[in-house]
Amino acid sequence: MLSQLRKGSTRALIKGATRSAVPQCCAAARTAPSALRKLSTSSTRLNLASQTPRSTPLTAGKERGTPLVPAELLQVLEETIKTHGPLPVSRYMTLCLAHPTFGYYTTRKVFGSSGDFITSPEISQIFGELLAIWYVTQWAAQGASPRVRIVELGPGRGTLLSDILRTFKSLPKHSSPPVTSIHLVENSEALREEQKKKLQAGGFGDIPVSWWGSVDEVPPTNDEFTVIVAHEFFDALPIHVFENTSNGWREVMVDIADPKAIIIPGKPRKPLRLVLSPSPTPASTLYTRLSTLAEETTPPTPSPSASSALSFDTTLPPAHSPSPAPRAAASASSSSPQQQSISPTLARFARLPEGSRMEISPASWEVARGMGRLLGGERGGAGLVVDYGDAKAFGRSWRGFRKHQVVDPLSEPGHTDLTANVDFSYLAEAMGDLATSHGPLPQSTFLTSLGLQPRLAGLLRAATPERKKEIESAAKRLIDSTGMGSQYKVMAITPKRTEGAPEEECFPFLKEAAEGAAEGAEEKT
Ligand code: SAH
């Protein structure tokens, strides 16, 4: 990869690049600053620095007063519970987020000041620009395919997609990935419509676009390089929650708070509650069995220290602490077929003390494998997963988000965003036999390495005095070490290298940076 980057199609990008903060060995590292200088200096679109990202931890906000309960989806939930019994959290999440008539994403404007949360691409255009630059380095390193497709999971308003396309287009022709098709995985009809409009408004209406309901529907290809991105997608996928009790692992379920209460629309009340299933559910049985098997087949890890054991009620240490996710993926790929199908994450399941909770997202496992498969084509590809979370499992991160505040996930179903921290080590394990994962790195490290500061300086030079402050605070927010810069992580995915080929580092996911990030993550728990 590095030798390819030094010649041919990337020459113009590399010419004149600074060497200051990046290792000499990595040509991709030198690509970014030079490419950035070729971008236009149009100013940031919006100043949304005061709005709240969904990474906000559980302790950061409290719901004010008792919410009014909207009746529609609640009635569906209550009828379902009365018919089938309490619902697994995963089923509750699916109904709340994706119900075709009353679902959160299907019915409302969720983004921006009138919505419930704000995301990085909506805060500053620099975010999408820097991701685009990373893809350019990968595309060039893998042979600069003459045909490129972009696959985005959960594109929201289409802002990130549009910024990536705009950045590609603004580069000199031989350094610009020629986008020949777009594939969007989106289950909201309303958002599909917004994405279509955004593409047209950006002048990209001529590129063929297909919408799909799931990543598995996106066709494989040997004809195009695949750029794949999932920004704030995995956190919205359904999770199961399990708790270790004196009787073994039991699933946490959503039940009706008072089955005899009559629903009076508009009357404040707490209609739902979390309960523990008194007996094993199909999911808890399956995961308990898998965890026992996993423990039998996974090499023992050092027992957790007293301090980390105390943190089990909220978070769990990484399976192979402190190795970062890519090494977890590599070990999965060299294991036996039986080990491949059993996650080391689940081995920890078996060892947790009573009272511990564990959040597991089988849906995320499947999506991660789908992403890995899409990078298997002859033309190669590169993927980025950006989300809040870490390279470890979480136990109590499930939360609701409404009007820029963290709220009870059971309140106002269908009107509340539901989200959980992403376990990047689980994603890496899932795709370990299909692709190579790198990281995760904190968002601040990733964006700064790719050239956030020079890009910001460029935008500031061209901005009016009034806009300067807005642009600066938006960009700084993306890398704030106490907020988005550390809470959000970036994991990269590249095609699996062929047997015997030397291991290559993938800028900026250098070994030292990844280890530093893993150690930092450990200190926080
Ligand atoms: N990536 C965008 C939007 C994040 S919100 C941004 O960062 O601004 C999550 C997005 O994923 C929305 O577009 C939502 O409709 C979509 N989504 C959530 N769950 C989905 C699922 N199971 N299948 C397809 N799309 C889903």
TrEMBL record:
Organism listed in the record: Leucosporidium creatinivorum
Biased composition (Low complexity): 293-311, 326-344
Gene3D superfamilies hit by this protein: 3.40.50.12710
Database matches in Pfam families: Methyltransf_28 (PF02636)
Family membership: Belongs to the NDUFAF7 family.
Location in the cell: Mitochondrion
Keyword Methyltransferase among record annotations: yes
Listed name of the protein: Protein arginine methyltransferase NDUFAF7
GO MF, one annotated term: protein-arginine omega-N symmetric methyltransferase activity
InterPro entries assigned: NDUFAF7 (IPR003788), NDUFAF7_sf (IPR038375), SAM-dependent_MTases_sf (IPR029063)
Function (record text): Arginine methyltransferase involved in the assembly or stability of mitochondrial NADH:ubiquinone oxidoreductase complex (complex I).
